[in-house]
Amino acid sequence: MEKACGLMFKRVTSPLGTLEVSGCQQGVHGIRLLDGKTPDTDPTAAPAPRDPLDDPGEVPEPLAQCAAWLASYFHEPAALPALPVPALHHPVFQQDAFTGQVLRKLLTAVQFGEVVSYQQLAALAGHPRASRAVGGAMRSNPVPILVPCHRVVCSSGAVGNYTGGPAVKEWLLTHEGSLAGRLARAGGTRLARASQPAGRSRVCVVGARE
To answer: Going from the N-terminus, what domains does the chain have, and what CATH number goes with each?
Structure first.
């Protein structure tokens, strides 16, 4: 799939280290943290300067949109609602399997500053008894941060697992003002509103049933 798509890459500097965005003309395939360092920057500190975007003629539109989205996420989150969500073209988003269903629901239903439990996300995705399987779907997420698996926490309010490690997950939640550790001490989580209408996303789904 990747060879057929002719993947291109774009790097974005973030407070967590260098992020590498991969994708093709049809959409983003992955987001990967290259440095793998433990974040030591206070999310409330002054943001680092943004990376200038490459010549738009040299970067596929989905990658340019994703780089702009990530830059806004880290440095100007209030501007996120006005930005387009880049199309996604990783194979998991082209299939109507459980993992794709859960990730698409997470992308559209759980917004900046909200968290949701594994059980609640399973219910939102139409599989209320599949909370354990939701954990597997989070581990298979190819585009972390954009598809916010860091916002999925334990029902107790504990942070829970994260591919990038608990320190990265806590940093992201702190950045969004929803640190799960603080919520756990309060005895609960600030859960996403299940009744909130899901927004439309530009997910590239080939052959999926609506």
So the answer is: 8-185 (1.10.10.10)
